[in-house]
């Protein structure tokens, strides 16, 4: 059992409003959502319809919620949702979604309707944090009466098009800061003991334990291994505490946990997890791994549809 102490709060006691305010006061802006995300999205207006589906109340002008939608939307085509930046600090989730839109999405618009939401948590992107300003994790908040407006915003967007998406790929990262900052902060916030874990060294996927879709997951792993290495299991055969079901794949009950991957009723859904802190990869390779996962997933489903 760890005796590590997070510098905010009292061990064993959940945070109250004072501790949350102290945590928020410690957060600083580190990069620009407008420059790194908004400008790139608007630059794609010739290829997609740019949709503003809301704005964060923390600063509505600074944090518009933006998505890209196929111009040739056709209700007879299967629908695909690609999301990134549910955890704003996970950079390649955001930039990978944008890169897919920039470079590969056009190849799939004949067969699919595409809806791409590159950065669900703009405040988290700017401050490089997992939570929103209320110390709430948006990726546990895709539930009725969501406590996170970031999650509620995406849920409202999805509702406009119906939950019957065929595919949903949610782009994430697992970083060294998960163990260095975010999991200790979570334990402190909830008044629990911090139990250290191992950060997986490589790319992996989180499928839906209620509908795992082994072939879909394998196709993505096989594609990504050409770009970056796949995370091995730990000594217990687990990745982040969950048993490895096949190489580089674990499963969670995505709807039960309120994860973004459960926001639709898609037959094929997964969460990607890139490892950007490896000395073996560059930022571009992390973005490319996200694109490789998306395209491989779409290629796999397209092949199934044509059988």
Low-confidence segments: none
Overall 3D geometry?
A: globular
Strand order across the largest sheet: 1-2-4-3-5-10-6-9
Strand content: 15-25%
Q: What is the fourth-level CATH superfamily?
A: Zn peptidases
The whole-number mean of residue pLDDT values reads 97
The major β-sheet equals:
8 strands, mixed
Structural class: alpha/beta
Strand/helix succession: HHEEEHEHHEHEHEEEEH
The CATH architecture term is: 3-Layer(aba) Sandwich
CATH fold call: Aminopeptidase
The first-to-last residue Cα distance is 52 Å
The whole-angstrom Rg is 19 Å
Plain-language structure description:
The protein is α/β, with parallel strands linked by helices. The protein has one domain: 3-Layer(aba) Sandwich (Aminopeptidase). Helix content is 33%, strand content 17%. It has an 8-stranded mixed beta sheet with strand order 1-2-4-3-5-10-6-9. A hairpin with an 8-residue loop joins strand 1 (48-55) and strand 2 (64-70). Helix 3 (91-103) crosses helix 8 and helix 7 (214-224) runs antiparallel to helix 8. The protein is globular, with a radius of gyration of 19 Å.
Task: Quickly describe the structure.
This protein is an alpha/beta fold and 307 residues long.
């Amino acid at each position: 059992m760890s005796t590590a102490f997070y510098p905010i709060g009292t061990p064993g006691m959940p945070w109250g409003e004072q501790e949350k305010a102290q945590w928020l006061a410690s957060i600083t802006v580190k990069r620009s959502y407008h420059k790194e995300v908004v400008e790139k999205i608007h630059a794609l207006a010739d290829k997609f319809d740019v949709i503003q589906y809301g704005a964060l109340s923390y600063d509505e002008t600074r944090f518009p919620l933006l998505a890209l939608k196929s111009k040739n939307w056709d209700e007879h085509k299967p629908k695909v949702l690609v999301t990134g930046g549910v955890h704003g600090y996970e950079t390649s989730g955001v930039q990978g979604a944008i890169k897919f839109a920039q470079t590969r999405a056009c190849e799939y618009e004949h067969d699919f309707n595409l809806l791409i939401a590159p950065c669900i948590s703009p405040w988290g992107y700017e401050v490089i944090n997992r939570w929103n300003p209320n110390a709430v994790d948006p990726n546990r908040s895709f539930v009725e009466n969501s406590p996170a407006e970031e999650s509620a915003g995406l849920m409202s967007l999805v509702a406009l098009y119906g939950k019957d998406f065929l595919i949903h790929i949610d782009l994430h990262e697992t970083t060294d800061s998960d163990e260095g900052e975010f999991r200790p902060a979570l334990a402190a916030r909830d008044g629990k003991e911090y139990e250290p874990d191992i950060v997986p060294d490589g790319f992996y996927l989180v499928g839906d334990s209620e509908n795992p879709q082994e072939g879909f997951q394998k196709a993505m792993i096989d594609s990504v291994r050409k770009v970056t290495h796949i995370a091995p299991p730990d000594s217990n055969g687990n990745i982040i505490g969950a048993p490895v079901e096949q190489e580089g794949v674990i499963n969670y009950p995505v709807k039960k946990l309120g994860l973004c991957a459960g926001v639709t009723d898609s037959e094929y859904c997964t969460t990607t997890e890139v490892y950007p802190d490896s000395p073996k990869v560059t930022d571009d390779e992390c973005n490319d791994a996200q694109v490789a996962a998306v395209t491989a997933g779409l290629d796999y489903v397209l092949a199934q549809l044509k059988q």
